[in-house]
Amino acid sequence: xxxxxxxxxxxxxxxxxxxxxxxxxxxxxxxxxxxxxxxxxxxxxxxxxxxxxxxxxxxxxxxxxxxxxxxxxxxxxxxxxxxxxxxxxxxxxxxxxxxxxxxxxxxxxxxxxxxxxxxxxxxxxxxxxxxxxxxxxxxxxxxxxxxxxxxxxxxxxxxxxxxxxxxxxxxxxxxxxxxxxxxxxx
Length: 186
Description:
Blueprint: E1 2-6, H1 21-32, E2 39-41, E3 44-51, E4 54-61, H2 68-78, E5 86-92, E6 100-103, H3 112-121, E7 127-132, H4 142-146, H5 155-175, H6 177-184
């Protein structure tokens, strides 16, 4: 069983922001595989389903970004899941909008949601799908940038990226992270 977590912030005011790229990807995966992510449990919204014959739990932490680890820890403990079966999808300002980068593990790289997960899990050894949201323009505050919305001209690139995230998740589950990295880290 795989636990697939998309990071973001709850509430309408955060919908469509760069920081909610993970939530957007979970919604896209849920739509594609007909999984309802509507059970309020473990400080998050949870949905159970099947992707290519594999059981998955889709998770949207409702703890706000900086406390994402609380939800992830509860979900991992409840399902007695191994950290190798955790996949986290989150926004990355070091990548161009819609660009993906898969990693088998690593540091938080300044991302507070990932810092929280590492802190609560006591390990950096979980798979990640980084979703490019573009770097903040000169003079912008980082929080203002990530809590801002994508311009409409980037929507086609983002829709394509959401499709690629679905493919990347499938690839990780069926072929492994190395195969996913070879295929999606162009």
